[in-house]
Specification:
about 80 residues; mainly alpha; 3 helices
Length: about 80
């Protein structure tokens, strides 16, 4: 079997298998290449968020306490709607 035949066989199998990929997230449904792209995008986003949290980890407790204080301040004031 020559190298060209091996490459053709590999791509033929890839073409068959990429159609079987599917993702359903709520109302969003994707199959084939778009599903693969959504999966890769999710992995890249997760690694970016992880890197950002690892970089900001020394400041994270301070940020969380400030967010908690903001939430308590917002909760103590009743919402007013303009009429």
């Amino acid at each position: 079997m020559s190298k060209v035949q091996v490459v053709k066989a590999v791509f033929r199998e890839l073409r068959r298998s990429y159609k079987t990929f599917s993702i359903e997230i709520g109302p969003l449904r994707a199959t084939g290449v778009p599903a693969i792209l959504l999966g890769v995008t999710g992995i890249v986003l997760a690694s970016g968020i992880t890197a950002a949290l690892a970089k900001a980890s020394p400041r994270l407790p301070e940020t969380l306490s400030e967010a908690r204080g903001l939430a308590e301040a917002m909760k103590s004031q009743p919402a007013r709607l303009k009429s």
